Amino acid sequence: MNNKNITRYTYESTDFQGWRVSIQRCGRIITRYFSDLQYGSAKESLRLALEYRDRVFAEMRQHRSNLAEYMDRELEKLQDLLRGRAHAALRVRVRG
């Protein structure tokens, strides 16, 4: 199995255990974490990390002529995802 651009993170001092996908092109870095807890197991989080990485690489090949724009759009999608999670966590805290 090729785990290029994927790193395993297991920290005893925090609750995070999972995989990190990190891809750098055109001076931009796309980083996304796949938590074992969120996806149910280390095997499933790795499967999703590999699927995400492969999708990003495939899209990068399709957008070679405007790779910087593609990277910017992908980074924006990830930022929106994080904002959505932060808002959801805030709503839970406010209600709880």
Structure description:
With 96 residues, the chain is α+β, with helices and mostly antiparallel strands. It has helices spanning 36-39, 42-62, 67-95; strands at residues 6-10, 17-25, 28-35. A three-stranded antiparallel beta sheet has the order 1-2-3. Strand 1 (6-10) and strand 2 (17-25) form a beta hairpin. Mean pLDDT is 80; it is low at 87-96.
Question: What's the topology here?
Answer:
Layout (H helix, E strand, L loop, with lengths): L5 E5 L6 E9 L2 E8 H4 L2 H21 L4 H29 L1
Name the quaternary structure: single chain
| Number of E-state strands | 3
Order of strands across the main sheet: 1-2-3
Number of helices: 3
Q: Quick one: overall form?
A: globular
Low-confidence stretches: 87-96
Estimated helix fraction: 55-70%
Taking all residues together, what is the mean pLDDT?
80
Q: Rg from C-alpha positions?
A: 15 Å
Q: Strand pairing plus helix content: what structural class? A: alpha+beta
Main pleated-sheet profile: 3 strands, antiparallel
What is the H/E string? EEEHHH
The end-to-end distance, rounded to whole angstroms, is 43 Å
How much of the polypeptide forms β-strand, as a percent range?
A: 15-25%
